[in-house]
């Protein structure tokens, strides 16, 4: 058997979320997508988002989804800003991993 270990890191410096929406398209603080004439309509969002990041490390996926377990771990940031921000110093999310091949 062979083992290997290391760190997977992501550095976050800025984010732009012009509409102020969640990953599923809903407005932060409530609101929903409405269907007008068979097309999704996204009303303007009135509340700002409080933005944090979640890093989930899993095996390769041809279609990436947020569904399912994080095979190799996950980590979250604290709230970093609102809809759009640039940090003076990057925030690093770090996951330690260990793999074993047999």
TrEMBL record:
Domain (Notch ligand N-terminal) ranges = 5-102
- Tell me which Gene Ontology terms the entry assigns under biological process: Notch signaling pathway
Return the Pfam families for the record.
MNNL
Which Gene3D superfamilies does the protein's record reference? 2.60.40.3510
Q: Tell me which GO cellular component terms the UniProt record holds.
A: membrane
Keywords assigned by UniProt, alphabetized: EGF-like domain, Membrane, Repeat, Transmembrane, Transmembrane helix
Q: Which InterPro entries match?
A: Notch_ligand_N (IPR011651)
Q: What is this protein called?
A: Notch ligand N-terminal domain-containing protein
């Amino acid at each position: 058997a062979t083992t290997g270990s290391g760190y997977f890191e992501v550095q976050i410096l800025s984010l732009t979320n012009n509409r102020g929406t969640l990953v599923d398209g809903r407005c932060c603080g409530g609101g929903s997508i409405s269907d007008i004439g068979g097309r999704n309509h996204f009303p303007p969002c009135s509340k700002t988002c409080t933005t944090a990041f979640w890093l989930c490390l899993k095996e390769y996926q041809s279609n990436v989804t947020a569904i399912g377990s994080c095979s190799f771990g996950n980590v979250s940031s604290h709230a970093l800003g609102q809809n759009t921000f640039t940090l003076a110093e990057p925030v690093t999310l770090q996951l330690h991993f260990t793999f074993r091949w047999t």
